[in-house]
Design a protein that fits this description.
The chain is about 30% helix and about 25% strand. With about 270 residues, it is of the alpha/beta class. Strands 5-6-7-3-8-9-12 form a 7-stranded mixed beta sheet, sandwiched between helices. The longest helix is centred in the middle third of the chain and has 18 residues.
């Protein structure tokens, strides 16, 4: 990522990925996912939440083309550049793999680019460190650096903060907000860190085999479907959510407007009966 590199930003509001009537099943069992309609647009931060076994990771893999849908279809914008941070990545601790070599596994990168990527995700100076010697937080940021190497238009994160303590989780998602602002990329994230992640999202999808409800964080936290899954205790904290950002709603990723408002219930959510 040289100083001259320029990231092409998709037009504001343009559809990056769209699913229509998506269902996924493994073998003859009942579908893991069914009747999913979903659109991911340029510049958004969208968080997918749901209980264990709700099909969240399956949903991401189907959108990315890693598994084929049983019914329905998934459309991806032609030439869409994707960056993906998986839920788990296990490396042999005996493998003599430095951070720099790990980043080059996907594509050739100059020493300058490796250093720029590591600096961008907040872990400069780790290029020659063995992957096996990294802390949990450092490891996740190196995975993120690898996902950023292709200058993605859409960054996909599958529970990227597993194993991190609460300050580490908060710091990671502050970094994601910065990346969205600076790079103009959209972010689609699956997470169980409800309070932290939902407060950093433009839109939340509550998934439990199908989309139970969706909307802004405040709207979803007040939805009966969400409260039935996660309990009434989460609603109070999330109702205090204030979304502060420095981008125009019509032009995501641009620093043209500072928005300081409370997303109210009047903004609307979609609820399944």
């Amino acid at each position: 990522m040289s100083a001259a590199a320029v990231t092409e930003i998709a037009p504001a509001g343009a559809a990056l990925i769209r699913a229509e009537g998506l269902s996924v099943a493994y073998g003859p069992a009942a579908p893991i996912l069914h009747d999913i309609d979903f659109t991911m647009r340029a510049g958004e931060i969208v968080t997918v939440v749901g209980p264990n076994g709700a099909g969240k990771s399956t949903f991401l893999r189907a959108l990315l083309g890693m598994i084929a849908p049983g019914t329905g279809r998934v459309w991806r914008a032609p030439g869409l550049r994707l960056g993906y941070v998986p839920q788990r990545l296990h490396l042999d601790s005996n493998l003599p793999l430095s951070v720099a070599r790990f980043l080059r596994l996907v594509q050739p990168l100059s020493r300058e680019t490796v250093q720029a990527l590591l600096e961008r995700v907040g872990v400069p100076g780790l290029a020659d460190r063995p992957m096996a010697a990294l802390s949990g937080g450092q490891f996740q940021r190196v995975l993120l650096a690898q996902a950023l190497a292709g200058q993605p238009q859409l960054l996909v994160l599958d529970e990227p903060t597993q194993g991190l303590d609460q300050p580490g989780v908060a710091a990671f998602y502050r970094l994601i907000e910065d990346l969205r602002r600076d790079m103009g990329c959209a972010v689609l994230s699956v997470s169980h860190d409800l309070h932290v992640v939902m407060s950093a999202s433009d839109r939340v999808i509550c998934l439990n085999g199908h989309i139970c409800c969706e909307g802004t964080p405040t709207v979803v936290s007040n939805a009966p479907e969400y409260r039935a899954l996660f309990g009434l205790g989460t609603q109070g904290a999330l109702a205090l959510y204030q979304h502060h950002h420095d981008h125009d709603h019509d032009r995501p990723g641009k620093n043209s407007h500072f928005c300081d408002h409370d997303h109210s219930e009047a903004e609307g959510a979609r609820h399944d009966p």
